[in-house]
Write a structure and sequence with these properties.
The protein is α/β, with parallel strands linked by helices and 279 residues long. 37% of the residues lie in helices and 22% in strands. The chain folds into 2 domains: 150 residues, HAD superfamily/HAD-like (Rossmann fold, 3-Layer(aba) Sandwich), CATH 3.40.50; 108 residues, Hypothetical Protein, Haloacid Dehalogenase-like Hydrolase, Chain: A, domain 2 (2-Layer Sandwich), CATH 3.30.1240.10. The strands form 3 sheets. It has a 6-stranded mixed β-sheet, covered by helices on one side. It has a 5-stranded parallel β-sheet with strand order 2-1-12-13-14. The longest helix has 14 residues.
């Protein structure tokens, strides 16, 4: 098959994009990505997840590139087993952020260097724990309950991000305003009620731009897929941004193309249309 000369890189968000509602990768997507790679086009994951929670999918697809983790807080190389470019929270930022989470009574998880920490489980976390329990031991992410986030923050080598959520939208908006006004951190929505908080300047889009510049890949040679607000910058900087059919109207509005939902052949269809067509 003639090698595609336009796109050199496919970038994929995980939840709500590459993964269907059962947190699985659809067979037609796997086949399309296999064909894409056969044509010499590289495939990269860009996720809000910790690298330990993204690894099963990277491994399943047999990928080679490092992945963008925690909404751009770092780039992780699984082969070298270490983060590459990174901008974690400072210890003081983590301390101050935890105080605000306590003040506003917002459910929170803390992403340590090597694991995801929680004090109690909510519905979203429980779904991740249930998924994790189905994996082989060598693929299972390290997700641990801790007694005190305060102790963790003081003892951790580094903290990548906090993830906070609440069914009370007003409480979340007040929390975000407080963070932005007092701490100046980056707040990215990764779900309708879920907020990812990292150092200012971190985003999937920024990390992607840095990496492709180092690799000599032009933006026009990148096609990116996403479904949430934390994907919007990445969709804008890519030569072609593809929003999933299950994404919010504002995400679709910033994309160059809207494909089917994550529970359909949407990714495979877009890859066939834009990448797998000889040209």
């Amino acid at each position: 098959m003639k090698k595609n000369m336009k796109y050199r890189l496919v970038v994929l968000d995980l939840d709500g994009t590459l993964l269907d509602s059962q947190l699985q990768i659809r067979d037609e997507t796997i086949e399309a990505l296999r064909r894409v790679r056969e044509q010499g086009v590289q495939v990269m994951i860009a996720t809000g997840r910790h690298h330990v929670a993204a690894y099963p999918y990277w491994h399943h697809l047999g990928l080679e590139l490092p992945i963008i983790c925690c909404n751009g807080a770092y780039l992780y190389d699984y082969r070298a087993r270490r983060p590459l470019a990174s901008d974690p929270l400072t210890r003081q930022e983590a301390r101050d952020l935890l105080k605000l989470a306590r003040k506003h009574d917002i459910y929170t998880m803390v992403y340590d260097k090597d694991f995801v920490a929680y004090e109690s489980a909510n519905a979203h976390l429980q779904s991740i724990l249930d998924w994790s329990s189905t994996l082989a031991a060598d693929l299972r992410p390290r997700i641990e309950r801790v007694d005190s986030f305060e102790r963790l923050v003081e003892e951790a080598e580094l903290i990548w991000k906090f993830i906070s959520s609440s069914d009370d939208q007003l409480a979340m908006e007040t929390f975000v305003a407080d963070i932005e006004q007092t701490l100046g951190l980056s707040c990215e929505w990764s779900g309708h009620d879920r907020l990812d908080i990292t150092r200012a300047g971190n985003s999937k889009g920024n990390r992607l731009v840095q990496w492709i510049a180092e690799q000599g890949i032009a933006r026009e040679q990148v096609i990116a897929f996403g479904d949430e607000k934390n994907d919007m910058e990445m969709l804008r900087v890519a030569g072609r941004g593809v929003a999933m059919g299950n994404s919010r109207p504002d995400v679709q509005a910033c994309a160059d193309w809207v494909t089917g939902s994550n529970d359909s052949s949407g990714i495979a269809d877009a890859l066939k249309r834009f990448v797998l067509t000889p040209g």
